[in-house]
Structure formats: C-alpha cells, structure tokens
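1st attempt posting a full record on here, be nice pls
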Amino acid sequence: GQALDMGRRGDADILFVHDQVAEEKFVAEGFGLARRAVMYNDFVLIGPAADPAGVAGKDIVAALRKLAASNAAFVSRADKSGTHAAELRYFKTAGIDDPTVKVAGRSFDYRACGCGMGPALNIASSANAYVLADRGTWLSFKNRGELKVLVEGDSRLFNQYGVIVVNPARHPQTKTELAQAFSDWIVSPEGQATVAAYKIGGEQLFFPNATTAR
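the predicted structure (as tokens):
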C-alpha cells in the first residue's frame, strides 16, 4: 500500500509489489503503464509449536475462525501492505469483517503493529503469537523462537508479485526508460532464471511465472 502511494505521488519510477487487486486499480486509474506478473510464493500462518488455538492444517479460513475464538495472540502488520491486505481478505472469508473489533465469541488478542514483516515476526516470536507471513521472509527470518509454520498449502495462500512502471504522463520526472529496462529484464528468460536461482538455506524463495500469468 505504501509503495503504491509512492507511485501515485511520483516518488518512485517502478513498483515491485504483491497485491494484485490494488495493482490493477493503480493501473486502471492511470498511475501505471501496465502490470506484469513476475513470480509467486505463498503465505503461511506462523504460530507457536504448541499451537494453543489448534489451527494446524491446510485450511486458512478454518484456522482463522479457530484463532479468533481462542485466547491466543495474533500479530498483524496493519500497514496496508500486500500481506496485510491478504490477511484482511482471509479474515473476511472467515466471517470476520474487522478483526480489531471485540464481539461475542471472538476472544483472541489482535495486535496491530503498523510495521514491516520482519518486525511483526519479531513481535510474534517474543510474544509466542500467531502471524501471517510470506514464505520468503519466514525462510530468511532467524529469530524464530518457538514459532513454526502451522498452516500452508491452501490455494488461497497463493501470493503473486507484479511489476509496474509509473506512468510518465502523470509524473514526467520519473526515469521511465530505466524503469522499463528493469521491467523488461525481470520478465525475460535471464531475469526469470535469476528469480528461480535465489535461495536461502538451499530453499527457493520465489517461483518465476511471467509467461504463465498476466
């Protein structure tokens, strides 16, 4: 969300983001030239290994319903990021339009940090709380404490990344030629191979799909 706002203000030349609905709206409003799919990974629900809310499994919606009815803590980025947008979509699908509101049958401790993924994971680690994360950040995160992946494999956890060149008609000062060069490279065979080759601890973080998704 903050990245898209930077693009709207002309404070960026190119955006590399992962909130497809918001990205398509950004382009439709004339702020971006086009949206190109680049790669994907997935979201995972992280939590304490003991799993006091009993959420472990593949169904993210069922997991969030159980979590909301428990006394466990959940850390939200609450920062308008792609991850935060996905979290809110999953809660809404679970019948929870606003997880910050206390209602009957909803007893979990929802903590909005207004922070990035790394800090949110640090808070979750220190509080032994649950948190939604993209797999790439989780794989590179070292301060795990008792946390582990509890929910993964749900098709709804698919996380697509796209690249958008900011429209110079809106912001003539942007470096369109350089931005377009990067956009062209990242979806090229060389760029896609670079994405596929990026690993942490021998595990691939992102999967290129520029030729199969638009």
